[in-house]
Design a protein that fits this description.
alpha+beta; 5-stranded mixed β-sheet; two-stranded antiparallel ribbon; 4 helices; globular
């Protein structure tokens, strides 16, 4: 949603399913080594910030992808929009290396070993935009995968494609120079 006024922002926050969770249960699923977030007077010590991102004009939802990073390695990718796009399979050889190159930089800078990243690659498919970073946790929607599928994936050595029109999954061996990432797009 594009916000043009403070009232737009207020309405967006008020209608969000995630804002209460993000404010009250921000560390659910985290390791217990996280420091206490309450001061002696019971107030939260988390320095909350509202971060707004620039609206991307003519955002093409079919070109937004969710990337799962495990042990600082890109494990699998799927499209964010659950609709069928017949042109996506032909773009996989172009998009996969762009995403890998971009995420190599992100992974190096990000403090966690496991996380989920949403990226966008608008035409002419030369630049990758970071849209969001999500926790490696069940509350992050795995979209075309299930969390069990993701957790069962071995270290990247094969590319798995899912044909969601007939419910089958095919694995194909690829050479190392093609990249060993699971890529799922609805075909």
């Amino acid at each position: 949603m594009e916000c043009r006024t403070p009232n737009d922002i207020y309405l967006l926050l008020k209608s969000s399913d995630f804002i209460t969770h993000d404010l009250e249960q921000v560390f659910d699923g985290c390791e217990p080594s996280i420091l206490s977030t309450e001061s002696p007077n019971g107030q939260s010590e988390i320095p909350y910030r509202l971060v707004l991102r620039k609206t991307i004009p003519a955002f093409i939802t079919s070109l937004e992808f969710r990337c799962f990073i495990r042990s600082r390695t890109l494990l699998c990718i799927c499209q964010r929009d659950l609709n069928h796009y017949g042109f996506l399979p032909a773009l996989v050889p172009v998009l996969r290396p762009l995403i890998q190159e971009f995420l190599d930089e992100v992974i190096r800078k990000f403090p966690d070993e496991n996380f989920v990243v949403d990226v966008y690659i608008p035409p002419p498919h030369k630049r990758v935009w970071l849209i969001d970073i999500n926790p490696w946790a069940p509350r992050t929607d795995p979209l075309l995968f299930s969390w069990m599928e993701i957790l069962d994936l071995p270290s990247p050595r094969t590319i798995t494609t899912a044909d969601t029109t007939n419910g089958t999954t095919d694995a194909e061996e690829v050479s190392e120079d093609e990249g060993d990432i699971t890529f799922m797009a609805e075909f």
